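Predict the 3D structure for this chain.
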Amino acid sequence: MSQTLTTGATRLSDERDSAAPAPVIPLPRRRPRRVAAIGRGAGKVAKRSIAIVVFLVLWQIAPKLGWVEEAFLPPFTSVLQALRDLIGSGVLWTDISASLHRSLAGFAIAIVTGIPLGLLIAWYRTLSEILNPLLIIFLNTAAVALLPVFTLILGIGDFSKIMIIAYACFWTVLYNTISGARDVDPMLIRSARSLGLSSRKLFLKVILPAAAPAIFTGVRLAGAVSMLVLVTSEFVGAKAGLGYLIIASQNNFQIPQMYAGIVTISVIGLAFNHLLVLVERRFSRWRT
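Done. Predicted structure below.
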């Protein structure tokens, strides 16, 4: 009897021991993916900022050390002070508003007209053969050289400035669109035709997506051209705008304000290009 009880107690003790939870071994902590992504992003930003930081440091110390005349190239801190004064007085916002109105209006006109016409020229060979000689002539005519013509015909107001910007941007958009549509892989087109796609679906499903990278490249280049031609057009007959700010500051020998206008144009151009890159990524998600 006692042996039976002892055996039962031993079995019960063994069952309790087997039912006891196993000791928890802590696993090595893994670095969160978000933290790793943030670290990689910060590293890329740091690499891309090195050249800019070095340039700004050289800009700051070059006048101080006498490498250049401070009256012609003031330190970067003096330019920042002039920029703060322009912002505080409200003058800079007025000039930015006037310049953006002209630049964006001309840029939009170039996009609306250049992309459809470029696709039509690439799609219809006969139209391309008719227009190609004329397009080559205008492509090799600098837009800035035609500024007096636009001023004489359209006046010195905003309309002439918008149209000269549209003219300059139009050719960049047009030729990149034509190039992108014509460079579509012929095997891709033949494969789509063998599947029975109509001309309309072939254009929308194959040619247009394949030409999108080249089209967006032209759009981004046109954005840079719009800022370049904008400044030149505002040198003549403008009463407001960043180009007017630069030329007026130079004439009055307000050199820090002149550089403040140049810095503002650079920042706006950089932001505009970044915005176009985001738009390109949004409409080109299929690209690896």
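The chain is about 80% helix and 0% strand.
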